[in-house]
Design brief:
The protein has helices at about 5, 10-30, 35-45, 65-70, 105-120, 140-150, 160-170, 180-195, 215-225, 340-350, 385-400, 430, and strands at about 85-90, 95-100, 125-130, 155, 175-180, 205-210, 230-235, 240-245, 255, 260-265, 280-285, 295-305, 305, 320, 325, 330, 335, 350-365, 365-375, 405-410, 425. The N and C termini lie far apart (about 55 Å). It contains 12 helices and 21 strands.
Length: about 425
Amino acid sequence: MFDRTAECLSRAELAALQLDRLKKTVARAYANVAHIRRKLDAAGVKPEHLTSLDALERFPFTLKSELRDTYPFGMFTVPRENLLRLHASSGTTGRPTVVGYTRGDLDLWSDLMARSLACAGVRPGDVVHNAYGYGLFTGGLGAHYGAERLGCTVVPVSGGGTERQVMLLQDFGADVLCSTPSYALNIAEVGETMGVDMRKLRLRCGVFGAEPWSEAMRRDLQTRFGIKAIDLYGLSEIVGPGVACECAEAQNGLHGWEDHFLFEIIDPKTLERLPTGEPGELVITTLTKEALPMIRYRTRDITTLNDEPCVCGRTHRRIMRVTGRDDDMLIIRGINVFPSQIEAFLVDFPGLAPHYQIVLTREGPLDAMSVEVELAAEAPSDERFLAKKADEIRHHLKSMIGVTCTVIVKRSGALPRSQGKAVRVKDLRKTAG
Ligand code: DLL
């Protein structure tokens, strides 16, 4: 473990630490951010009301739109000169969401990423091939500084140039691959077409995140590379990658670092806090971040919390696999569909490659969904075979997710490949009018 004392605190010690840090965080945000002061005043709550962790329930949530409304620097507790770094994520519309870090924040982030990587089974001295994108996205630099902090040799390749990535993985003998799961799959495929046996690489472990992925995809990546595939979670508004990570021992749920974050699950409709174990939207409060504290940030990510003890000995509760976002949940003729459900189905379907794209259109007043899938490289690709396969998939999808959709089967290599976060949904409804 990177920090055994912190990772194995008793639940009582964790709760006491959380309350102490929560009080300080809220007091600091209230004193320094006009927007937060106005919000808490309007809700009739003050930092002094935080006499217990449960008292947080009376405090208002923070939404992504508030970061946009106060763009670019309106939510920071410190003058801009005290920020050492900015990152930003582009939304689907309008202004990006800007986040900033003090020296202390960057230090904390490196520690949390080092802790996460160690939890994933990465060890000092390992060669870490980092194919997360470098730049405004937090993935590249987050994994980079975390791996350095742990004492690894970092190969900062970023995304793209996939043939070269395969060569470097071989030549530098990488032990660990960090990338989005969809890009890892792309690397595996390119390697296979180059005639490289990806299972013979030295790679031992993959640390994958930044987008939803399924157990089926995990099995696929583990087999193709001969590695242990570990799930890593985070979001730029909270710190970046390193908010939670699976342990190599259990590979079953991501330990959320509770000495630095407070996790709640709410019902996204009623906004009530839900008991541990019930599925809902993850809400996160930062406990130690300086520049950009977040009070009850609504992530839109759908998951459950698990407080059962873990075989690895860490005491921090687990955030179970994020299956999708509240706002990328598709409602097709009244039925809720997450793209990751479709992925899980396709990965296990014989003769298909795990690539897909969902295209939404409007037919009169109704939404129509078509799913474009791709044949595995070795499958026959004559028209009759494609049509027969499409029929089979449509039938199985209907019985699994309950939605009738059009299925278009494409030849191997026809769908776009990911170099970072995969784009799974193409929504043509707005342009169709
Ligand atoms: O994706 C940070 C990150 C980088 C995490 C590298 C892990 C690895 P954002 O670009 O702000 O930050 O996007 C955050 O991505 O709210 C989730 O919807 C999704 N996401 C991140 N990790 C996972 C995961 C980075 N392991 C948004 N499983 C989050 C499912 C994930 N979804």
